[in-house]
Amino acid sequence: MGHGALIFLSISASPHLPHLLHLPTPTPSMLSEVYYLVRSKSDGRYLTARPNADASGYLLLFREHFDALSYLNTHAAEVANRFAIESIPGTQLGSLLKRWGFSGVGIVSDPLLPKVEFLQHS
User: Residues 7-65: pLDDT tens digits?
Assistant: First the structure.
């Protein structure tokens, strides 16, 4: 697994970069799903992964609410209470990515490792 910086908003950085699987374009089936995001209660920024420090980053998405909680409790237990988990329908992902300038999304398939599939926004 590659290592780099996983940006945990502005609070801390983790030495573990989620594994980069591939960068396909999001599929139409993604639009019918509901995803869960982790957001800072203090400044409203979203949890992102930045494989490249110069890039805008990838918005981390979870398929289940409990996966987002598991991620926080495993990798940021000491600051987990500073974050909220929000749901978003897949139909709103494109506008959110554009508004915040994200490169794409990282869908977390295993919150404990973490294992993330990155999808490029086009």
Answer: 333 222 333 444 443 444 555 566 678 999 999 999 999 999 987 776 788 999 999 99
In angstroms, the CA 23 to CA 68 distance is 22
Give the pair of three-digit tokens for residue 57.
Answer: 């980053």
| Peptide bond connecting 111 to the previous residue in cis, omega within 30 degrees of 0 | no
pTM of the model: 0.74
How many structural domains are present in the chain? 1
| Distance from C-alpha of 115 to C-alpha of 92, rounded to nearest angstrom | 24
Range of the domain at 9: 3-120
Write down the residue that tokens 């979203």 correspond to.
Answer: 46
Q: Could you give the C-alpha distances from 44 to 78, 82, 112, in angstroms and in order?
A: 19, 10, 24
What's the whole-number average pLDDT of the chain?
78
